[in-house]
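Mods, move this if it's the wrong board.
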Amino acid sequence: MTATHDLLKILDTLCPMYVLLGDSGHIRQVGPTLQKLRPDQPMQGQRFLELFELNRPRCVEGMSCLLKRAGAKLHLSFRDDPRTALKGVLVPLPGNQGAIVNLSFGISVLDAVRDYALTSADFSATDLTIELLYLVEAKSAAMEASRMLNLRLQGAMIAAEEQAFTDTLTGLKNRRAMDHILGRLLDRASRFSLMHIDLDFFKSVNDTYGHAAGDFVLQHVAHVMVEETRSSDTVARVGGDEFVLIFDGLQDADILDRIARRIIARLEEPIRYNGEICRISASVGTTLFEPGSGADAARLLHEADVALYAAKNAGRAQHFFFDASLDAEDMDQKEAG
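Not the wrong board. Structure tokens:
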């Protein structure tokens, strides 16, 4: 009895998925890992061929027939679900006392490890499954590290792109972003309008109260413009105190004029900075793009600029739409100058 007990302890360590069979084909003992596959179903006392289905070789009907397959590779699976695939080899015990079947997982080892929550402690230390588990764990760790690195790189790329297209002082789009958006709308032949805004009396703020006050005023202006436009509109700072607004799909003159006049009115309100009052206003010029007109980005910016300076020449804090007569006046003034 002691010898049998010692043998079972050895088997538990060296091949924890063994089955010890009696001469009648009944299961006398199973290894701890094998029992873990059916924790609520004691295997001891069951017939081996009633618990397991022998897939290869076939036509094995009893213990005597099974013993004839000693040394041959067995392919089998549980008869009930989950029908985990196993492979094994049978070794008869001396004196017709039964046999030992040493089992291991088939190609489903990874599924089995997942399904039964197995760990390295459930396998013999020399089992290649241990190496496979380490490789799988290492692969998973490497893939997770790669995923995290890709996320960081993607985040860095997005941040770099945002920085490249953002005015750092105001948080608005910059000239580069405006050029990109304008080019995209022209390629798409979309109807849109472009509004050029230049601040009046901004230089006196810088000269009187310093550049910190000027920066504060620019941030306030940016806040006003964002509030007075839609989230789908483009608000860009393209120069020191110059801004361009692009309204995709909007060409209603009344609506555009109301937007411009609201911006002008709000920017004429006193701006308090460190106990001082900063006063500015804004002049606005707007042009409309019609698909098929042949106008390019340079032409549209020129038209908005012409309308803007017509507003300045009319006394500032004005809004003008571009028309050909304004362009002719502008050319006459340049020639006269």
